[in-house]
């Protein structure tokens, strides 16, 4: 009996030892292993230098560059920069969008440059002429809005002020991850320096051209700068052209006549959310192109342009919005535009569901904005 037990123990030990040695069969037809960004040598060492879901999180696993390095430091060149704007103290409803940049990056974990060939166009914007990087987040205080917005303005000016990687198109362009919608104002101030006034295509459920005396109550200049007044201020500063347009509007206004007249005076026309039912996506695309024809364009996407069923994680949700597919179809249809800057804002991850619905949608919207920028390079003025 003892000899039999000894033999069984020896057999078990041998089986465990043998099980530790795993031999993989040869892999055919696989260029890069799913989940790895490096070469894979079946007969040699595994390359673990670029696995997905590891290391610091960047948008779409893009390389991180310290774009805000001090003067004199060597900074890697880029053509399109992703920058986060963790700011939400300009909201009039639910806060939480300061965590939007990290939420959008979370939604982009499954996107990777070498695995992004578009099913509809056959193109991969990450692998074309533009060098695209993630610059991380702007360092913004959460205790003083005026200081924070000045910090964000300087961040934009530093990032856009560096010489681009492509020598023919020497001004880098920025896509901002928000953050509440107030963060678009510093972005427009920066693009004005390089490209002059622009047409704004504003995807939103709200107008955001309210007079600071109305939305802010006239309490103070400080209170009047918020996520519902930034387009009024941009118009006041001469940053936007009278060929600007809203898309997806459906929220109520404060004053039956004044708000709409004032919006028109700020240079905007309106595509309402339900206009999509009559015009279709192609009709909306044609209207946006017609309105902004011959101008340089800044695209701002408030994630609440989507119905709360598709984007619950936002500060001021309005029912009756567009689907994610409809928004992406419209964005992808804006080919040929000279898009000089863009943002995706009002993503507040605390209100998202376990499936990260809003964050996934926002990440894909950013992807579409990148594609528009890559398809049409734009020349700007590099400041001395």
UniProtKB/TrEMBL annotation:
UniProt signal peptide: 1-19
Biological processes, Gene Ontology terms: putrescine biosynthetic process from arginine, via agmatine; spermidine biosynthetic process
Essential cofactor(s): Mn(2+)
InterPro entries associated with the record: Ureohydrolase (IPR006035), Ureohydrolase_dom_sf (IPR023696), Ureohydrolase_Mn_BS (IPR020855)
Keywords annotated in UniProt: Hydrolase, Manganese, Metal-binding, Polyamine biosynthesis, Signal, Spermidine biosynthesis
Family matches, as Gene3D superfamilies: Ureohydrolase domain (3.40.800.10)
Superkingdom, taxonomy of origin: Eukaryota
GO molecular function, one term: metal ion binding
Similarity-based family: Belongs to the arginase family.
PANTHER family noted in UniProt: ARGINASE/AGMATINASE, HYPOTHETICAL ARGINASE FAMILY PROTEIN (EUROFUNG)
Protein name: Agmatinase
Species: Salinomyces thailandicus
Lineage: Eukaryota, Fungi, Dikarya, Ascomycota, Pezizomycotina
């Amino acid at each position: 009996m003892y000899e039999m037990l000894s033999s069984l123990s020896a057999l078990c030990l041998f089986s465990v030892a043998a099980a530790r040695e795993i031999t993989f069969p040869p892999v055919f037809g696989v260029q890069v292993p799913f989940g790895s960004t490096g070469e894979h040598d079946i007969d040699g060492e595994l390359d673990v230098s670029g696995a997905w879901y590891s290391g610091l999180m960047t948008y779409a696993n893009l390389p991180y560059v310290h774009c805000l390095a001090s003067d004199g430091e060597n900074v890697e060149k880029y053509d399109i920069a992703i920058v986060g704007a963790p700011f939400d103290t300009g909201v009039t409803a639910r806060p939480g969008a300061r965590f939007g940049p990290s939420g959008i990056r979370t939604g982009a974990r499954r996107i990777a440059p070498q695995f992004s060939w578009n099913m509809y166009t056959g193109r991969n914007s990450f692998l074309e002429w533009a060098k695209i990087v993630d610059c991380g987040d702007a360092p913004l205080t959460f205790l003083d809005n005026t200081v924070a917005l000045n910090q964000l303005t300087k961040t934009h000016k530093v990032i856009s002020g560096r010489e681009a990687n492509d020598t023919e198109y020497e001004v880098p362009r920025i896509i901002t991850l928000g953050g509440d919608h107030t963060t678009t104002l510093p972005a427009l101030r920066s693009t004005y320096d390089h490209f002059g006034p622009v047409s704004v295509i504003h995807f939103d459920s709200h107008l955001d051209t309210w007079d600071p005396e109305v939305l802010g109550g006239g309490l103070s200049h400080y209170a009047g700068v918020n996520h519902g007044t930034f387009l009024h201020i941009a118009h006041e500063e001469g940053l936007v052209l009278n060929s600007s347009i809203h898309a997806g509007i459906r929220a109520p206004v404060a004053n039956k006549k004044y708000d709409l007249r004032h919006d028109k005076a700020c240079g905007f026309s309106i595509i309402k959310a339900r206009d999509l039912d009559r015009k279709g996506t192609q009709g909306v695309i044609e209207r946006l192109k017609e309105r902004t024809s011959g101008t340089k364009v800044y695209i701002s996407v408030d994630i609440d342009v989507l119905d709360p069923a598709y984007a619950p994680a936002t500060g001021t949700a309005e029912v009756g919005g567009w689907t994610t597919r409809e928004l992406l179809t419209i964005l992808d249809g804006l080919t040929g535009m000279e898009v000089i800057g863009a943002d995706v804002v009002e993503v507040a991850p605390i209100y998202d569901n376990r499936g990260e619905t809003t964050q996934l949608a926002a990440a894909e919207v950013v992807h579409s904005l990148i594609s528009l920028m890559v398809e049409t390079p734009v020349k700007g003025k590099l400041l001395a």
